[in-house]
Design brief:
Chain B: One of its GO terms (biological process) is transmembrane transport. Chain B: Pfam families: ABC_tran. The complex is a heterotrimer of chains A (about 270), B (about 260) and C (about 325). Chain A is mainly α. Chain A has one domain: MetI-like (MetI-like fold, Orthogonal Bundle), CATH 1.10.3720. Chain A has helices at about 5-25, 60-95, 95-110, 115-125, 130-155, 160-165, 170-210, 220-225, 235-265, 265-270. Chain B has about 260 residues and is α/β, with parallel strands linked by helices. Chain B is about 35% helix and about 25% strand. Chain B has helices at about 50-60, 80-90, 110-120, 125-135, 150-165, 180-200, 210-215, 235-240, 245-255; strands at about 5-15, 25-35, 40-45, 65-70, 75, 90-95, 170-175, 200-205, 220-225, 225-235. In chain B, strand 9 (about 220-225) and strand 10 form a beta hairpin. In chain B, helix 3 (about 110-120) crosses helix 4 (about 125-135) and helix 3 (about 110-120) runs parallel beside helix 5 (about 150-165). By secondary structure, chain C is an alpha/beta fold. Chain C is built from 10 helices and 12 strands. In chain C, the strands form 2 sheets. An 8-stranded mixed sheet of chain C has the order 6-7-8-3-9-10-12-11, with helices on both faces. Chain C has a 4-stranded antiparallel sheet with strand order 2-1-4-5, with helices on one face. In chain C, helix 6 runs parallel beside helix 7. The longest helix of chain C is centred in the middle third of the chain and has 18 residues, at about 180-195. Chain C is globular and about 65 Å long. The chains are: A mainly alpha (about 270), B alpha/beta (about 260), C alpha/beta (about 325). The interface between A and B is medium-sized, with 17 and 27 residues.
Amino acid sequence: MKLPVNLLIGAVLVALVIGAAALSLVWTPQDFTVMNVRNKFAAPDTIHWLGTDQLGRDLASQLMAGARNSMAVALAAVLLGGSIGTALGLLAAAIGGWVEDLVMRIADIGFAFPALLFAIMLAAVFGPSLTNAVLAIAFINIPVFARVARAAANQVWTREYVAAARAAGLDRFAISRDHILPNIAAPVIVQATIEFAVAILAEAALSYLGLGAQPPSPTWGRMLSEAQTLMYQAPQLAIYPGLCIVAAVMGFGLLGDGLRDVTDPRLVRER
Amino acid sequence: MILDVRNVTRRYRLPRRALLQPPPVLVAVDNASLSIDRGQTLGIVGESGSGKSTLARMVMAFERPDQGTIRFDGHDLNALSTAELRRLRQRFQMVFQDPYGSLDPRRTVGWSIAEPLRVMGAPDTARRVDEALDHVGLRAADAGKYPHEFSGGQRQRIAIARAIVTRPALLVADEAVSALDVSVQAQILNLLMDLQDELGLAMLFISHDLAVVASICDHLMVMQHGKTLESGPAHQVLAAPSHPYTRSLLTAAGAAA
Amino acid sequence: MFELDRFSVAFGSATALRQASLTIRPGDRLGVVGESGSGKTMLALSLMGMAPEAAQVSGRLLIDGKDMSAATEADWQRLRARKVAMIFQEPMSALNPLRRVGDTVADPLRIHLGMDRAAARAQALDLFREVGIPDPEARLRQFPHEMSGGQRQRVLIALALACDPALLIADEPTTALDANVKLRITDLLVRLAEQRGMALLFISHDLASVARATQDIMVMYGGDIVERGPTAEVLHDPAHPYTRGLLGARPDPAPQQRDAAGRRPRLPTIPGTVPALHALAAGCRFSGRCPVERPDCATVKPAMRAFGTRSAACHALEVPA
């Protein structure tokens, strides 16, 4: 089978971002916390590959560490929101009736609620932190996954092997665990990949507003925010983290689209 | 008597046509009664919309009747607690129409066949799966394979193995051979007859095809639009059908002979 | 007139249709029976120029004497609907659910025959009358989901007839229908073929429908045509061991009583299962399952041999000289 182009480009971009994030755990070109004010705004050279920032910190190393933080926030948020949302979707499909209606109407409200507003509220009450950023992004993911999971689960519930499992004496929860979940994994994973891109962007936005990670831990959003006042003096300080965000968001977005293309037989047939 | 269905009615409310009128009601099964003795087969013949599948779903306790009672081996299925019903389920099992849809594509054949045993917490699962596979003419090694590795007829054998692994007293077969090629259909019908002889199974055999039902049933019931048109010993109904609809089914099935 | 001459369709080592030769003349009603993997659908698709692109095709297809081996997709598009049309098993999925059935039937009239809207609509109405749709004027404005399965199949037949094809291919046209409707649709196809002088290729695994619809029959197994002849004769006295097995396996609506020991008579069966296409024997495709098999059956392909009005491809066949 020929792999779609978006899948290939997405996979390469994602591999680069994840590779950089993973590498930063054990090695960065320089220690990104070391300040050297005499060497601020240095031009790229063999020591500082992308130069230094306004405090003389190594830019390339900060970007790598930022990748790690972005990935960690996005992963935690999507895992958390995805599990809760998928569980709710499975529950709604398994029970049906008013329970399903209730879960889905709550999901609708969740959709209608601006995510950034929720994050700002959270930060206002509990103070800005990486954990609160994760919680806020996870929260906006819950209705997305609840919908995808419920729609896919309702389809699987009509299959005869589910009826066979009922005949075998399994209850609704056992059927959801043994048959529904494995058979809706593909669309849920595809959605997770796409939501990963959204989460990276959301994390960048929250950090930019100062509601995410706090200094000194670098994130792309905060680097962007700090670079803002220096736009004319040193535009590269904003351009590099901006490019990283674009690459990561595009990478996961394309990967998700590509995965959907290869896993959804209806789309394959149309091509 | 293993199954006794008395005056069962099932209605469905259809979507409302107009805002202020009550929603129309479809009577899917209208006052149906039937009974099956141990080791005997009752055939229900009827077309889509005749109510035969709804009746099967009620016998399997997937749905509750609006009126009437369904007794399996003396137990009123709709008076049992959830736990009691779950325990009783191992004694009445079902074979479905679609050999491609009735097995979970992500589970091995052995896993699927063992499913009812796991629910019961039965010991010796592996040996009983092997036995069931042997009963339906498959090999023990097939337990490790996935459904897509089998043909339609073989999958229907697997579905039958899952249905008999708990040694049930009643097997409900809803259009169990309808999706199969003619020569495969004959093999599966013979297999069901063999299993009935070996295990003393009672069968509720449902099909739209009168010729298929005629080959396997002791008693016959003809349904149309939820109503029972006629029922009785199969040889009587087939030799002297009392209802014109039954006669037209005979014409449609008999033109090949 | 359609002629296939040693026509084969293969996917690598898997041969879906092997050296099929046949002629369909105007007014012929030819039945094709066989089970899954027999090649009957591939035969139909080949006649429509719709064999899958991945397939290797050999042999010749002549339509009105013209060799189609060099025909492009554009050539075929000019022939489809006008020369050869097809109806399918599942009438629901073959109709666009968002279009009124009258528009669906009028479309090819406007596209292929260049009729204007009013003329196409009048013609669609005539077609609805011809295929026996009651209250045709009201029906034209309905959507597929508002009709019964039998009515939808009639719409599809009207659609297939729109451009007055010389050959109508019906692939399992009655399989999804209830018994009474099945009879009426079968009879309708026969009447239309007779009235229009149209050839009918009736593909089905349902022997009752084929017996009712056709004059001649072709039995296929594993991509081969194994037997052909007048329908009544072949069904009454099958010559090929596969045809005999297939007819025997079909249950009979006569009552079957249990014997004294309580045993019920078993149906005659063909042993084994149809092998996958790439695993079929090089000789007779039926070897390995055949009750009258000879040593060379698995390796030597039996030729089609004629006897009287009939012919069959079997080494064990006794052909009266």
